[in-house]
Design goal:
Helix content is 28%, strand content 34%. With 177 residues, it is an alpha+beta fold.
C-alpha cells in the first residue's frame, strides 16, 4: 500500500495549520498506482484522468479501492482533460453496489504531461466538487500524475481543505499488495 499525508479539517486557517501538523493517510494499493501510471503514459503527451473510488476509514484515512478511467467520450489535449461524466457515474454506481455501499466517489485524478502542480482549473474544479451536495465530499482528494522524464510518472496528492488544495506529501512507500 501507498501512504500519503492528508489533512482533514473544517476549513479554517487554524484547522489547516492543525491539519498540516497532524496528518492522516491516503491509502492506495500498488496495483492502483500502476493503473494511474499506465493510463498516464498511454495518453501522453495529452492529459487523461478519471475518478477515485473508495471510502474514509475509522481513522479518517481515505482508502482508494478503485480508479475509474476517462471513459469513451472523454476529451484529451496537451493542457486539458475532461472526463466522460456519464461513464464515470455509471462506474461509480457499479462499484458502490458491488461493495454493498462501502465504496463511493472520493476524488479525482489526472495527468500533467509537464510537471507544474495543480492549475487554476484544478483548484476551481475541486472547490466546485467540495461545495456540490451531489458529490457528498467536502474534502475531495486529487492525485496529479506528473511526468518527470520519459517514461517516469510521479504522483502528487492533494486534499481540498477549506478553500484551498493542500499537498499531502510525495514521499511514497509502496509495499505491494
Amino acid at each position: 500500500m501507498t501512504w500519503w499525508r492528508t489533512e482533514p479539517t473544517n476549513g479554517s486557517a487554524d484547522d489547516v495549520a492543525d491539519a498540516l501538523a497532524q496528518p492522516t493517510a491516503l491509502v492506495l494499493r500498488a496495483t492502483i498506482m500502476g493503473q494511474l501510471r499506465l493510463e498516464s503514459q498511454r495518453k501522453s503527451p495529452n492529459e487523461t484522468g478519471g475518478v477515485l473510488v473508495g471510502y474514509v476509514d475509522e481513522n479518517g484515512r481515505t482508502v482508494v479501492t478503485a480508479v475509474v478511467g476517462p471513459g469513451p467520450n472523454a476529451v484529451h489535449s496537451r493542457s486539458r482533460f475532461r472526463r466522460d461524466g456519464d461513464y464515470a457515474q455509471a462506474e461509480v454506481d457499479r462499484l458502490y453496489h458491488a461493495s454493498k455501499g462501502r465504496d463511493d466517489y472520493v476524488g479525482e485524478w489526472h495527468s500533467h504531461p509537464d510537471a507544474g502542480g495543480p492549475s487554476f482549473i484544478d483548484r476551481g474544479s475541486m472547490s466546485w466538487i467540495s461545495n456540490n451536495p451531489s458529490y457528498g465530499r467536502p474534502e475531495p482528494v486529487l492525485i496529479i500524475m506528473e511526468r518527470v522524464r520519459e517514461p517516469e510518472w510521479c504522483p502528487r496528492a492533494y486534499r481540498w481543505v477549506g478553500r484551498r488544495l493542500v499537498e499531502v506529501g510525495a514521499s511514497v512507500t509502496v509495499t505491494g499488495c
